[in-house]
Protein: Tafazzin family protein
Amino acid sequence: MPLEKFQWCFPARPNRLYNIASGITIAGVGTFAKVLLAWLNKVNCYNIELLESAVSRRNKNQPLVTVSNHRSCLDDPSIWGCLRIKTLFTRKYMRWTLAANDIVFTRRLYSKFFSLGRCVPVCRGDGVYQQGVDFCLQKLNNGDWVHVFPEGKVNMTNEYIRLKWGVGRLIAECKQVPLVIPFWHVGMEDVLPNKEPYIPHIGKTVTLLVGKPIEFRDMLTHLRNERRSPLEIRKKITDIIQEEFVLLKAKAEALHHKALQDRQGFQSNNINISNEEKANR
Structure:
């Protein structure tokens, strides 16, 4: 049943009970992410200090937008297992993220749970002007963190997908130009394969490469002085993110390939050492 059959899942004025329930949900989901990604699997993070600093140590009024590729249904929340436990358990630090209403918000119970975990429903195909995007823009204007998968779906083929322009609107229309941090991850599709049975695996390798913050302030000032249309501005912003994705993808895949080779070599050496020990007994 699609979300439009239900009422909007976020209260206009969250009460204390709602905030407590949200905090418990975020802590529980954060625990799951840490256990799955960092303890049951192996994650190699590069430049993670840039992301951690932006999430937990930026100015309290500075909005943050992170963007990444989307390879598995467990990318969010699992990928946040790379962050410190304190960050994962602190409600004020955690992200808001856009989630497809026809996949995530299909039951009233799911709607309650995912909204407590700061997932915001978005209707794919309804364009950049819709309630979910408006809601995230409001959160950015409050200085919060919003994460976006601008591919708009799980990219099962790992091909280049034209990014959706909703992220361009969030950046362009935010009252204060947000800090924008891109990152690319490889290997989440091994942790949760995109085919049945949908059971998380352990012992897999994941690589996460955080890129440098993208500066949009000067570009936005220039485009506005030229009186470019909102559509042109959204497209330009999204194009820049796409270009950065291309660079990050190549680097992350090279790092991931090397990590797999090193791991295979380490396992082979251990097997050889074990065989030698048995032969010497």
Observations:
- The mean pLDDT is 93.
- The CA atoms of residues 49 and 210 lie 9 Å apart.
- Strands lie at 42-46, 64-68, 96-100, 119-122, 145-148, 179-186, 205-210.
- The chain has one domain: 3-192+199-274.
